[in-house]
C-alpha cells in the first residue's frame, strides 16, 4: 500500500517515492486551455495550492526533460498530443511567499529577497555563457547575493524572464505561490509598504511582458486591483465563486471515497461527510477538505478531530468577536452555528484596510479563507452562505467560548451547568446560574438601557454548549405570536423549551418589597399566559415542553415566582411540562 506524506508538497518527490497522490493532473490541461496569460487562483489554506503549482513546475520545466516520466501514469497523459507537447518545453520561474510573514517589514522583506535569490540560483547557468552582458551579470549577482536595492528587486522577475527567453528562445512560465501571505502579515503595521512592493513586483512581472507564456498566482484572497493588480488587465481571477478550476482544489466526493477505499477506512461515509464535506466551489458541490481527509486517514483510530482548524490560531475571527461593538457579527454567527444561512454581498476585490470600517467584508474574508461556503448565488454579488461542516462549526463554537471566558468572564462550566439545569427542567438551578451569567455579561457591556447585547451573548453561549443537540431560535414567528427564545431538540424524547422575556423597572424608592414582588410575579404569570395563549410551543408539539418566563427588573432576572407577604397573592407554578 502506498504511504501518505502529509504536509509534503513536492510533486516529484511524491511520485518518485511512490507516495499516495490524488490525481489532479487535469489541472494542467485546464491551465493550457485557458486563453488568459495570467491566472489568479485564490483558495483556502491546505487545499492543494502548493502541490498543484509544484506539479505545474515539473510539467512545464525544460531543464529536466526526464520529468516527462512523472506524468505517464496520470490522467494528463491520456489527453491529446496538443497537451502533451507542452511537457518539459518552457523555462520556469517558481517562487513561494508562504514564509514571508514576519512581524516587521524588514524581516518580511528579507524572506522575499531570499526567495527571489533562490529563483536566480536555479538559473545560475545564465552567468556561465555570453547570454548576458557584463552589466547584466553584475545586476544578476546583486540579486543572487541579496545586495541589490529595492527597485532592482521589484523588477527582478521581469528581468529574469527576459534573460531566460533570450537563452532558451522560449517564453517563460512564472509560478508564484501564496502571494498574499506577506500582505496578510503586514495589514496592521506595514500594509502600505508591503502592498507597494508586491504591486510593483507583480506589475513588472506580468504587465506587458512579451517574454511570458503563462503566469499562475495562488493565495487565499483576491486583493483589490487598486491595491495590488493596478493596471494588470491581463490577470483573470478564479476564486471560489467561479466555475473554472472548481474541482481542482480540495477532494471531490468520488476522490474522497477512493481515498477511504484505498486505505481500507471503514468509517461511515456520512460521518466523514458531516465533519469534512460541505464546500462548494463554483459549480462543484461536495468538495471535502483534503487536509482533514488525509489527516483522518492517518489517525482514524483516534476518531474525528479538527485537523484543519488545528493548523491555524483563528486570531482574525477572535478579533472580530471580541469587540463590544461586534454584536451584529455575533447575531449572524448565532444563525450560522444554528445551521441557518445568511445572505451577504461578496466582494471579489478585497482591501484589508477596509476591514475595520466595513464590517461586511468579514464575510468575504471568511468565505475565501474556508470558514464559510456558498449555498446559493442570489444575484451578481449576493450569496447565501453557511458553515460547511462540523469541523468548522467547532471552530466558531470554541471561539465564542473563548470570547465569553476571556472577555466576558463567563466560564464554560457555568454555561454547561446552567444549560443542563434548563433542559432537565431544574428551573431553580437554572435561575441561579442564569443570574450569575447575566451579572457577568452586564458587567462586560456596562449598560442598563439595552439588554439585547446580553440576550444574544447568552444565546451564543447556549449554542456553543448545546448547539449540537438543539436548534435554537430567537425572536421568531411561532403559532399566533412571537416568542423570545425557542429550543427545539433533535431528539424528540428530550424536552423542548420556550422562553418568554419581560422587562420592568427596578424597585422604586417609594415601593416596598411586597409591592415589588407582586409586580415581578404578575409579569411572570403574564409571560406564562402569553406563551399559552399565543401557542409559542407549536413547533414543540412532539416534545415535552418546558415553559420558562424571565422577568428583568433592571439588570436583575427573575424566573421562579418570588415569595412575598402580600395578601391574596395568586399562586401559579411558573413552569409546566405537558
Structural class: alpha/beta
Number of strand elements: 17
Give the amount of beta strand, in percent.
5-15%
Percent range of helical residues: 40-55%
Number of domains: 4
Rough shape? elongated
Structural Rg: 30 Å
Q: Which CATH top level class of the largest domain fits?
A: Alpha Beta
Number of helices: 21
Strand count, sense and barrel status of the largest sheet are: 5 strands, parallel
Mean pLDDT: 90
Low-confidence stretches: 566-578
| CATH level-3 fold name of the largest domain | Rossmann fold
Query: From the coordinates shown, what is the CATH architecture of the largest domain?
Result: 3-Layer(aba) Sandwich
Q: Gap between N and C termini, in Å?
A: 59 Å
Strand sequence of the main sheet, in spatial order? 2-3-4-1-5
Tell me what the structure shows.
- It is a single chain.
- The chain is of the alpha/beta class and 578 residues long.
- The chain folds into 4 domains: 11-237, Rossmann fold; 253-310, no CATH class; 312-392, no CATH class; 410-558, 3-Layer(aba) Sandwich (Restriction Endonuclease), CATH 3.40.91.
- The protein contains 21 helices and 17 strands.
- The strands form 5 sheets. The chain has a 5-stranded parallel beta sheet with strand order 2-3-4-1-5, with helices on both faces.
- It is elongated.
Task: Describe the SSE topology.
Blueprint: H1 11-16, H2 26-33, E1 38-42, H3 49-60, H4 81-84, E2 92-96, H5 105-121, H6 134-144, H7 150-154, H8 156-168, E3 172-177, H9 181-186, H10 191-206, E4 212-219, E5 235-237, H11 253-262, H12 269-276, E6 279-281, E7 284-287, H13 290-299, H14 315-322, H15 327-337, E8 342-345, H16 361-369, E9 373-377, E10 382-386, H17 390-406, H18 412-423, H19 427-445, H20 452-466, E11 470-474, E12 477-478, E13 481-482, E14 485-489, E15 496-504, H21 513-534, E16 545-553, E17 556-558
Parallel strand pairs: 1-4, 1-5, 2-3, 3-4, 15-16
Antiparallel strand pairs: 6-7, 8-10, 9-10, 11-14, 12-13, 14-15, 16-17
Helix pairs in contact: 8-10, 14-17, 15-20, 17-20, 18-19, 18-20, 19-20
Amino acid at each position: 500500500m502506498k504511504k501518505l506524506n502529509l504536509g509534503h508538497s513536492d510533486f516529484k518527490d511524491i511520485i518518485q517515492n511512490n507516495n499516495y497522490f490524488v490525481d489532479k493532473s487535469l489541472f494542467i490541461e485546464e491551465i493550457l486551455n485557458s486563453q488568459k496569460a495570467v491566472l489568479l487562483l485564490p483558495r483556502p489554506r491546505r487545499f492543494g495550492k502548493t502541490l498543484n503549482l509544484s506539479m505545474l513546475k515539473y510539467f512545464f520545466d525544460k531543464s529536466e526533460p526526464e520529468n516527462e516520466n512523472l506524468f505517464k501514469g496520470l490522467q494528463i497523459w491520456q489527453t491529446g498530443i496538443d497537451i502533451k507537447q507542452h511537457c518539459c518545453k518552457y523555462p520556469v520561474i517558481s517562487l513561494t511567499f508562504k514564509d514571508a510573514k514576519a512581524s516587521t517589514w524588514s524581516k518580511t522583506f528579507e524572506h522575499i529577497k531570499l526567495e527571489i535569490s533562490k529563483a536566480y540560483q536555479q538559473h545560475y547557468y545564465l552567468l556561465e555563457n555570453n547570454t548576458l552582458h557584463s552589466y547584466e551579470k553584475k545586476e544578476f549577482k546583486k540579486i543572487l547575493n541579496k545586495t541589490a536595492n529595492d527597485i532592482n528587486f521589484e523588477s527582478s522577475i521581469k528581468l529574469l524572464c527576459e534573460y531566460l527567453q533570450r537563452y532558451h528562445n522560449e517564453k517563460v512560465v512564472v509560478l508564484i505561490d501564496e502571494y498574499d501571505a506577506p500582505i496578510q502579515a503586514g495589514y496592521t503595521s506595514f500594509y502600505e509598504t508591503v502592498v507597494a512592493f508586491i504591486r510593483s513586483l507583480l506589475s513588472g512581472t506580468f504587465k506587458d511582458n512579451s517574454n511570458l507564456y503563462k503566469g499562475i498566482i495562488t493565495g487565499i484572497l483576491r486583493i483589490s486591483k487598486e491595491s495590488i493588480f493596478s493596471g494588470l488587465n491581463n490577470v483573470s481571477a478564479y476564486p471560489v465563486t467561479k466555475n473554472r478550476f472548481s474541482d481542482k482544489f480540495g477532494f471531490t466526493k468520488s476522490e474522497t471515497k477512493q481515498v477511504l477505499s484505498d486505505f481500507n477506512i471503514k468509517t461511515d461515509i456520512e460521518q466523514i461527510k458531516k465533519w469534512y464535506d460541505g464546500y462548494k466551489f463554483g459549480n462543484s458541490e461536495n468538495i471535502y477538505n483534503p487536509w482533514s481527509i488525509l489527516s483522518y486517514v492517518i489517525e482514524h483510530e483516534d476518531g474525528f478531530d479538527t485537523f484543519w482548524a488545528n493548523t491555524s490560531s483563528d486570531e482574525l475571527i477572535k478579533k472580530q468577536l471580541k469587540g463590544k461593538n461586534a454584536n451584529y457579527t455575533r447575531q449572524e454567527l448565532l444563525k450560522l452555528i444554528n445551521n441557518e444561512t445568511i445572505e451577504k454581498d461578496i466582494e471579489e476585490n478585497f482591501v484589508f484596510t477596509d476591514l475595520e470600517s466595513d464590517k461586511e467584508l468579514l464575510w468575504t474574508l471568511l468565505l475565501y479563507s474556508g470558514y464559510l461556503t456558498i449555498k446559493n448565488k442570489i444575484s451578481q454579488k449576493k450569496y447565501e452562505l453557511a458553515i460547511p461542516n462540523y469541523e468548522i462549526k467547532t471552530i466558531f463554537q470554541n471561539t465564542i467560548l473563548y470570547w465569553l471566558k476571556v472577555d466576558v468572564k463567563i466560564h464554560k462550566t457555568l454555561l454547561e451547568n446552567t444549560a443542563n439545569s434548563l433542559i432537565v427542567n431544574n428551573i431553580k438551578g437554572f435561575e441561579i446560574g442564569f443570574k450569575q451569567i447575566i451579572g457577568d455579561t452586564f458587567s462586560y457591556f456596562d449598560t442598563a438601557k439595552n439588554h439585547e447585547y446580553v440576550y444574544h451573548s447568552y444565546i451564543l453561549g447556549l449554542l456553543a454548549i448545546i448547539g449540537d443537540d438543539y436548534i435554537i431560535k430567537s425572536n421568531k414567528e411561532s403559532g399566533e405570536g412571537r416568542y423570545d427564545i425557542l429550543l427545539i431538540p433533535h431528539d424528540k424524547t428530550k424536552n423542548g423549551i420556550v422562553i418568554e422575556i419581560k422587562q420592568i423597572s427596578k424597585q422604586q424608592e417609594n415601593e416596598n418589597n411586597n409591592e415589588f414582588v407582586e409586580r415581578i410575579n404578575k409579569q411572570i404569570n403574564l409571560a406564562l399566559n402569553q406563551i399559552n395563549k399565543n401557542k409559542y410551543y407549536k413547533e414543540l408539539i412532539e416534545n415535552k415542553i418546558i415553559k420558562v418566563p424571565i422577568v428583568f427588573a433592571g439588570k436583575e432576572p427573575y424566573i421562579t415566582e418570588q415569595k412575598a407577604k402580600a395578601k391574596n397573592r395568586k399562586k401559579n407554578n411558573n413552569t409546566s411540562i405537558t
